[in-house]
Design goal:
Layout (H helix, E strand, L loop, with lengths): L1 E9 L2 E7 L10 H8 L9 E6 L6 E7 L9 H13 L7 E5 L2 E7 L5 E4 L3 E2 L2 E3 L2 E5 L3 E6 L8 H9 L10 E7 L5 E7 L4 E3 L3 H11 L5 E9 L2 E11 L2 E9 L2 E9 L4
Parallel strand pairs: 2-3, 4-5, 11-12, 13-15
Antiparallel strand pairs: 1-2, 1-18, 3-4, 5-6, 6-7, 7-17, 8-17, 9-10, 10-11, 12-13, 13-14, 15-16, 16-17
Length: 263
């Protein structure tokens, strides 16, 4: 059976999107998803998403990593699926949708970007000089000086496969401070098992750690290999971060048709 797919990207984090509101996609195997995401033998993407329907929501978001396994929350993916929903004609002043980590809201920005409200963060766990926290997906954050020259694949893979992360994996972020409130982030993503151009939940985690636990509202500009994002949030208690917003571009790339394997 042939399926129409859509390719979107948010700061270089790219995704295959399928409209599954009528249930027409059916069951996709891990092998099929991994094949479609393969950059040599498939469409090529960091992940695949299904846009579905459920009463009480504008839409639902199902996310799969590039290796075909079901994924946790993807911030850039969520912003892209919001843009996809709008392009499909699902108009709303503020979208309310169900993602892998629960309910989310998002809105379209005048510049064509998307602002996404992330889940609250409760606590940051220190690991030596580094930090671990969950922003919808688990993240390891390390501040470095030589971020442009470092081998992110090698260093990230070493941490991702170390104890206690070996079994479930973890996304590994390397961060350098920039002028004023800015940071530069490079990320090794589990499921992709390589460096990606950007990671929405990753830059959110890095911005929260970079704030140093200072109470009050924060707005941090983030540079990635794929472009610029902005993370805003409030801290009003020990380790509690809420009203977290991730903003940036979400862009349609192309559409096409692909054959879904039988069975």
């Amino acid at each position: 059976m042939s399926l129409i797919f859509y390719k979107y990207q948010g700061t270089g984090n790219d995704f295959i999107l399928l409209d599954n509101r009528a249930g027409q996609v059916g069951q996709l195997t891990r092998e099929t998803i991994a094949g479609w995401c393969h950059r040599r033998f498939g469409i090529g993407a960091d992940g695949l998403m299904l846009l579905g329907s459920r009463e009480g929501y504008d839409f639902t978001m199902a996310y799969f990593n590039a290796d075909g396994a079901p994924g946790s929350m993807c911030g850039n993916g969520a912003r892209c699926i919001v843009r996809f929903a709008a392009d499909l004609g699902l108009a709303s002043p503020k979208y309310h949708f169900l993602a892998p980590d629960g309910d989310h809201e998002a809105e379209l920005l005048p510049d064509g970007g998307v602002r996404l409200w992330m889940t609250d963060v409760e606590g940051i766990r220190p690991v030596g000089q580094d930090s671990v926290l969950d922003t919808g997906s688990p993240h390891y954050v390390r501040f470095v000086e030589d971020i442009e020259q470092m081998d992110v694949d090698k260093e990230g893979r070493s941490i991702r496969h170390s104890e206690p992360f070996r079994t479930n994996g973890i996304n590994v972020n390397f961060v350098a401070r920039r002028a004023a409130e800015g940071i530069f982030v490079r990320t090794f993503e589990r499921g992709v098992e390589a460096e990606t151009y950007s990671c929405g939940t990753g830059v959110t985690a890095c911005a929260i750690v970079a704030s140093g636990g200072v109470p009050g509202p924060h707005a941090i500009d983030v540079e990635t290999l794929g472009g610029k994002l902005r993370v805003e949030f409030d801290r009003d208690g020990p380790g509690r971060y809420h009203n977290i917003r991730l903003s940036g571009p979400a862009t349609f790339v192309f559409r096409g048709e692909i054959e879904q394997p039988a069975g």
